[in-house]
What we know:
mainly alpha, Four Helix Bundle (Hemerythrin (Met), subunit A)
Amino acid sequence: xxxxxxxxxxxxxxxxxxxxxxxxxxxxxxxxxxxxxxxxxxxxxxxxxxxxxxxxxxxxxxxxxxxxxxxxxxxxxxxxxxxxxxxxxxxxxxxxxxxxxxxxxxxxxxxxxxxxxxxxxxxxxxxxxxxxxxxxxxxxxxxxxxxxxxxxxxxxxxxxxxxxxxxxxx
Length: 170
């Protein structure tokens, strides 16, 4: 709760210091996935660490897309998000890097668990093919909102693919 509050609240909101993606990665990736694994299994496993990286990277991609829309107004408002620091082009490249990290992490889940069906999590890329091309071509406004929407869907697809893949015995 405190992490959520201090993202935009308090005297020095960390979301406006360029630290939002770090906290999103930690709480929506590492804490959520590894914490759930620990509660259910009693340990944090290597596959759960890879899954946490995949889910955390996609959560960060959602934030990057959202903040990319606001770069100009955030600069005027004095908000120093990671995207205002990276700039428009750098933020778009960072988005693609996060997608690559997600794919590599899903491969890591399969390799470390021996449950090759977890590679079905790679289907996350399907809803992102066209929106990512638009993003790299400089999409703004409504097309960028579509990228945001499809990135959220991609996270759902990745999580579902990992869930199904890890549920099927090796």
